[in-house]
Design brief:
The chain has 435 residues and is an all-alpha fold. The chain starts with 12 loop residues before the first helix and ends with a helix. It is globular and about 65 Å long. It is built from 20 helices and no strands.
């Protein structure tokens, strides 16, 4: 009998009546929202640095994109250790560990600005991302557990809705405090070593300031989280039978769950699409409209504001329409927008690239919630796998950066187009699987 894809339906009335957050967990939920905000600041304060470091150190787009490799590569390497921390000490300890490590990385920008080498900044960025990896591995599944399973995906979408608040703050800081000071091109060949040293010292000092502020905010949030009493979280397998075994059993549970495996793949390409879109939007604007880094930063800010507004909108929508139906529609719409941007590198193309943020808004938390549903005690390591998938944000920008160098910023948007298509296929898989 051929399976069919179900039509979008309203959530059952009894499901809509379920509380969004469990009793006694509201203050902790609010504190966790601060975590979602602050790693958004860290990520998108970093995104414009590809263009910034390319300008400061006079390197190719491919070389500058090592910023994203250092940042999202750390997500891949630290996610599994974070799962062991959560398994042994609990989510709260994992969250505090991530906050403190990220703060250490942020404060490392001060010595990096004095050393004045690209590698020193990559080390500092790696430390920030390592902390954010532990933080995200811990905070996402914790939010899913802070209430009824029926509202888990909506709850995570709401918490994640504050992540673009942070991304907007991050890009605003970069656009106002960093990029304007890098806007004037300099003929490096005409400068003496002393003149070049003075210019780079000033530019790297501009890079340093926002990160030191970020470190202070991370410490403040850690203190707030530490002061909250964390309720116990009990994770059980969906069936009634006992499950004996250690870590090996949990990994086998994940490996044999195709819905989870495909979710990891979808998350890899979703994060890749997001990072590619926001990283190369500035270069796309420069090709399509001309102008400075500051002008490109303005359109990136608009893109993130679209992302912010649509994240809250989609949280409301999926309370009424099945989340993966919306995910499928947005993913394939994004593919069409990428194709249009490739064909029309002009103002219309810029609008299309900015509109990709509307499509991105729902994707991360929805894939995360759908892939983890029903994993029970395997959730901690399942969450680590989904955070490790963020390495897509390290790999695919390198591919797109190479295309930018070899062709143009417009042509390079074939890369996020392919990534969005994979996300759309996962949404269709979920719909057909539950038909």
């Amino acid at each position: 009998m051929a399976s069919t894809v179900p039509v979008p339906v309203m959530e059952p009335e009894e499901r809509q009546r379920q509380p969004l957050v469990g009793r006694g967990m509201f203050l902790l939920f609010v504190a966790l929202i601060g975590c979602f905000t602050v790693w958004g600041v860290a990520q998108d304060l970093t995104t414009p640095m590809v263009a910034g470091f390319k300008r400061i150190f006079d390197m190719s787009t491919f070389q500058a994109s090592l910023v994203q490799l250092a940042y999202f590569g750390a997500y891949f390497l630290l996610a599994l250790p974070a799962a062991f921390i959560n398994q042994r000490f609990g989510y709260k300890t994992g969250i505090l560990t991530g906050l403190l490590l990220a703060a250490l990385g942020a404060f490392s920008f001060y010595p990096a600005s004095k050393i004045m080498t690209y590698e020193a900044f990559l080390v500092a960025l790696f430390a920030i991302a390592a902390g954010c990896s532990i933080l995200e591995t811990s905070a996402n599944p914790y939010v899913l557990a802070l209430g009824p399973e029926e509202t888990a995906t909506r709850r995570l979408n709401l918490a994640q809705a504050f992540n673009p608040v942070g991304t907007n703050i991050g890009v605003l800081l970069a656009s106002t405090l960093i990029l304007p000071k890098l806007a004037d091109p300099v003929d490096i060949a005409s400068l003496t070593p002393e003149q070049l040293h003075v210019i780079r010292a000033g530019e790297l000092g501009a890079v340093m300031g926002p990160y030191l502020g970020l470190g202070c905010v991370l410490i403040a949030i850690a203190i707030a989280i530490a002061s909250q009493k964390a309720p116990p979280i009990v994770e059980e397998f969906p069936d009634a039978g006992p499950h004996e075994g250690g870590t090996g059993t949990l990994f086998r549970t994940l490996w044999h769950n195709s819905h989870y495996r495909y979710g990891v793949v979808a998350q890899f390409f979703n994060v890749a699409a997001q990072v590619c879109t926001w990283t190369y939007l500035i270069q796309y604007v420069q090709q399509a409209l001309g102008g400075s880094l500051e002008k490109g930063g303005f359109y990136l800010q608009i893109s993130l504001l679209v992302f912010l507004g649509s994240r809250f909108l989609m949280t409301w929508v999926i309370g009424r329409v099945r989340a993966t139906w919306v995910l499928a529609v947005l993913a394939f719409l994004a593919v069409l927008l990428c194709l249009f941007a490739m064909a029309s590198p002009n103002m219309a193309g810029v609008i299309a690239v900015v509109a990709l943020s509307f499509c991105l808004s729902l994707m991360f938390p929805t894939i995360y919630g759908v892939a983890l549903k029903g994993l029970g005690p395997a959730t901690k390591f399942g969450a680590a796998g989904l955070v490790m998938a963020i390495v897509g944000g390290a790999i695919m920008p390198l591919v797109q950066g190479k295309l930018v160098d070899e062709t143009s910023a417009a042509v390079s948007f074939v890369v996020p187009g392919v990534c969005f298509a994979v996300v759309g296929l996962y949404a269709l898989y979920d719909l057909r699987r539950k038909a």
